[in-house]
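Appendix B. One record, verbatim.
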Amino acid sequence: MSHDAQPQASLYIDGGFVEGEGAALPVHYPYTGEVIALLREANRDQVARATAAAAAAQPAWAAARPVERGRVLIRAAQIIRERAEELARLETLDTGKPIQETRVADWPSGADALEYFGGLAPTVTGHMIPLGGDFVYTIREALGVCVGIGAWNYPSQIACWKAAPALAMGNAMVFKPSEETPLGALKLAEILAEAGLPPGIFNVVQGRGEIGAALVTDPRVAKVSLTGSVATGQRVYASAAEGMRHVTMELGGKSPLIVFDDASLDDAVGAAVLANFYSSGQICSNGTRVFVQNGILPEFLDRLAERVAGVRIGDPLDEETQHGPIVSPGQAAKIRAAIARGRDEGARLVCGGPGEGPFVPPTVFADASDDMWIVREEIFGPVMSVLGFSSEDEVVGRANASPYGLAAGVFTRDLARGHRVAAALQAGTTWINAYNLTPVEAPFGGVKLSGIGRENSAAAIEHYSQLKTVYVGMGGVDAPY
């Protein structure tokens, strides 16, 4: 079977495909390493062309009736669903994720976002504030040109999550996908155009960090939304601040998953598997610090090892495969170095290990302590650290003793404790008796070093628009002199 995934061209600017004029950008299929597409980066002139096209097209798009903007997004969602199998296969080739995942989690989530914000667009209104005779009203206006910078773990979902609220509110967007996974955003541009999006409103440029920096500092850009590592987020946030640009930063984490001794053990083990090994562990919100109450710790580890032993690792295009390759050899090397470090620090390897070739199997460390590197730092791979605890107060304090705060999970049958612990945890999203469910209806984002702003839900509208206050004087002007 051919794995050719060559797009029409590398960039999408002002309603058409354009070949990049920068460095070569080969796209590798993570399973075999073969080159499935050969793209070229944009150069700085092409970045400027994309932002200029967005700036020129945006005012007319913002002036359109919100319901008209919404219809374009809803039509795009319908096209995505009609082409579900083709898009799932492209996502698997781009990311290496198993086809059984990409059929349900990637483009489908993107379609949900386009549909949700398409429906929300005509409902966004301002307020009227009476002041006796005079009054004030507010208008929620577009920001202008927004930049989206994507990550390689959910490239098409991220492109949709950023484009949908931006476009719904009348903004234009220039999107730069990760150089590791550049294909999905080009397909989204094509689908949006087919759905009726005017030229210039959604543009795609390719490139590494230098192209991202050129975008973030372009004077036409009003807003930057980035999904990526904390280190990248800190650099981009600092660059955006120079021009007082709005930002949304959805960054990494080292999230705690807390299992109390009254929890459903099977559900908690299932959640720990989901919170660490889905997408080969390459998920920012993963609950990689699993705190288990001491009384159930041995049984938890036994059941966990049993569950993991049955995981099917292999060809991501095989429907039976549950665990695919790591996105790149470089990322696999980082994960293997972390596993070696965990062993050196004295953590006990329960199952898994470094693996070989493109695969790192589901790996579990027990007898871990809070000060170990593998417990403190984000690995972004299928590596779980299990830690024991005795009391609620103790585990909340330990869970919060991290510079990150993206997500957290609590498993307990005690409803009061579940809500009490969720309230006490420093995290943007906390699940009670569930994990890693991120419906578009719910806000998603981090606290502390894990980010700023929120994606999804009506909350995202606030981050892609600004309020204008209009004071209406109904009488004469009373001047002091």
